[in-house]
Specification:
The chain is mainly alpha-helical. Helix content is about 35%, strand content about 10%. It folds into 2 domains: about 90 residues, no CATH class; about 35 residues, no CATH class. The chain is built from 5 helices and 2 strands. The radius of gyration is 16 Å and the shape is globular. It starts with a helix and ends in a 7-residue tail after the last helix.
């Protein structure tokens, strides 16, 4: 893959905080998953083309990819103003639909701060009995 494209993708992933902008789920740097596959190829297989039946499901659910918010197939532009970080799974589900067409219109618009705050509130229960 072209090094410029890789750098552009990583810049987008970092800008979005490795957060899936459609679901709010945390994603993992692809290099970390590949290291796991290198050391544990049987338990954590990697497929270079993302074939679900041959690679670990974590690649499908946790690896970030770029999605076009407004699909190119519908006249959207291939530039960073139309890019968003999402998982391979959500990118596949969304396909060539707009977020309005699949009723994800309240998703993808969250700021990183809103996503992180939601995570902290939902997943860090307050212990009232210390």
């Amino acid at each position: 893959m072209n090094q410029l494209i890789i750098k552009q993708k990583m810049k987008q992933f970092k800008a979005d905080g490795f957060i899936d902008r459609y679901s709010g789920d945390k994603l993992i740097n692809p290099g970390i998953l590949k290291v796991l596959s290198f050391y544990f190829p049987e338990e954590f297989p990697y497929h270079p083309h993302g074939k679900m039946t041959e690679g670990h499901i974590a690649y499908w659910e946790l690896i970030p990819t770029i999605d076009h918010i407004y699909p190119i197939a519908k006249g959207g532009h291939d530039d960073k103003s139309n890019w968003v970080t999402t998982s391979m799974k959500n990118n596949s589900i969304k396909s060539n639909y707009t977020i309005d067409e699949i009723h994800w219109n309240n998703l993808g618009k969250k700021t990183v701060g809103e996503i992180i705050t939601g995570y902290l509130v939902a997943e860090r229960p307050i212990n009232i009995n210390p």
